[in-house]
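Deliverable D4.2, example record:
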Amino acid sequence: MTGTLVLAGTPIGDVADAPPRLSKELAQADVIAAEDTRRLRRLTQALGVTPGGRVVSYFEGNESARTPELVEALREGNRVLLVTDAGMPSVSDPGYRLVAAAVEHDIKVTAVPGPSAVLTALALSGLPVDRFCFEGFLPRKAGERLSRLREVAEERRTLVYFEAPHRLDDTLAAMAEVFGADRRAAVCRELTKTYEEVKRGPLADLAAWAAEGVRGEITVVVEGAPESGPEELDAEELVRRVRIREEAGERRKEAIAAVAVEAGLPKRVVFDAVVASKRTAG
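Output generated by the structure prediction step:
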């Protein structure tokens, strides 16, 4: 009989937020796969629990190599507990490969629900929460980052990102460039920790604030693109939307047609706006 893979959420800051079942799973698991074994040791000490099974590391650098070993342990009937440094495994953390492999071998996968920086930041942001999408970390290179942002420039759902503090100012400036300087956003820093802070405002203002230097774990929540009608879109905005689509890889003809549909306008109107902008630029 095969074992069970347990994905366990861990505190994103305050250890008191640990789910009650976490201590039980830590004590009873046959194998504990931890993103950082030192952090796991600090967590178990804070919870007053002694791991009952073998502890192995499972992080980005060895995830591919260690997955077959953990699958074999599961096939032998072991209960394998997967924990990351903070939050839920698989959500921008190690875990996806192991879950996919377990599913492929018909091994049971369950979870101990726990804290999530994504949902916590979303709830605190003050932005719409009825529909949202999680975009994880943006690429580090400026060009790739802009391209990724342009892909979702017209996304109407609220967007959630993780970001490193030393790249936050560049990321917010890029967001202001692509999404618009006035697009509302919230920067959530050090969630549930002593110095928790939620900074809200237009993207341009947040970029200027971040340029002074920000520390800690960062989650950024950005308002989705507004619903726009024909009367709200001037020629400059039409051209901007066509450019975004072109830079994302669409041909101009396709980009113009798509923007026309979005705006509820004849294609000729959008085409004329693009041609006029080229003449002005020339």
